[in-house]
Amino acid sequence: QVQLVESGGGLVQAGGSLRLSCAASGRTASINAMGWFRQAPGNEREFVAAIKRTGTTYYADSVRGRFSISRDNAKITAYLQMNSLKPDDTAVYYCAADDPVTFRKYSEYDPQRYTYWGQGTQVTVSS
Q: I need a labelling partner for 120 at 20 to 30 A (CA). Which of 49, 89, 102, 114 fits?
């Protein structure tokens, strides 16, 4: 099993920045990709960004150029640096990690790839 704990959410004005962290523990050697998803009230959970163990990154079009995902493999921690935040970025942000079975079946953009999920952290961007 893998446990994920997010931190770093909060309230920020439009145009501001936040940095989210996701610390993994447990059977972390099995993790290939770590991802961030978000869910706003009344909306489905949507892909934000992902990073593989190799460092290859993936972004949703809506955040590319504003958000940056990184990973410290030694600490088994993923980060999401969010700049130029907009009110539309307001959501609960979830960290996720895959496992050796799912990573062969689904793309990095697909929530089905991710077996392990954090509890979520609220990001609110005021206009």
A: 102
